[in-house]
Write a structure and sequence with these properties.
Number of domains: 2
Order of helices and strands: EEEEEEEEHEEEEEEEE
CATH class of the largest domain: Alpha Beta
Structural class: mainly beta
CATH topology of the largest domain: Glycoprotein, Type 4 Pilin
Distance between the termini: 46 Å
Strand content: over 45%
CATH architecture of the largest domain: 2-Layer Sandwich
């Protein structure tokens, strides 16, 4: 059995979604939304439509991901019974990474690059004093056996690198400073 945790944001409200895959060959799942559990039998059909039984009620759900190129953009449109609902649906780890990259700052000010989760610094892609462009890779942090590249949220100069390669870090640990 595989359990996956997601954060679904609907109309500005976050809901924790936990999916327990009881029997993927049979399409059987238990899906908990904000603590309320549902028994789900889901089948893919040769389109973007998924046929599901949720607590013995049948639904055809049409899923349309709005941006396939950005793994941190979990926006999807869901059509159920003629109604379209737009929501963001991200695995918890990806949600933390997105939040780390969306830090609010003054474009002219100093910003700290913090680890979005506990892990280990694998490598720095820049050095102190380097000029960086928005979106440029800065540091790679390993968390849960996954390599996560943190990117520059703005153009600037690396003022200081605070942690060292191989160093374990907690969620929120400042890794470097850009000005």
């Amino acid at each position: 059995m595989v359990m996956m945790k997601f954060i679904a944001t609907l109309e500005g409200v976050e809901h924790e979604v936990v999916v327990d895959n009881h029997d993927s060959d049979q399409g059987l799942y238990t899906v908990s939304v904000s603590g309320k559990a549902y028994q789900v039998d889901a089948r893919s059909v040769p389109s973007s439509i998924v046929t599901v039984l949720i607590n013995n009620k049948s639904f055809d759900i049409d899923l349309d991901r709005e941006n396939n190129s950005d793994p941190l953009d979990g926006k999807i449109a869901v059509r159920v019974r003629g109604r379209v609902v737009r929501l963001e649906f991200l695995e918890k780890r990806r949600k933390k990474m997105k939040e780390a990259q969306m830090v609010k700052f003054s474009r002219d000010g100093v910003i700290e690059i913090n680890s979005p989760m506990p892990g280990k610094v694998l490598r720095y892609l820049v050095q102190s004093g380097d000029e960086v462009k928005e979106g440029q890779g800065l540091v790679v942090v390993e968390a849960m056996k996954m390599e996560n590249e943190l990117q520059a949220p703005k153009d600037g100069t690396i003022r200081e690198i605070i942690t060292k390669v191989g160093m374990p870090v907690d969620s929120g640990t400042t890794l470097m400073v850009i000005e």
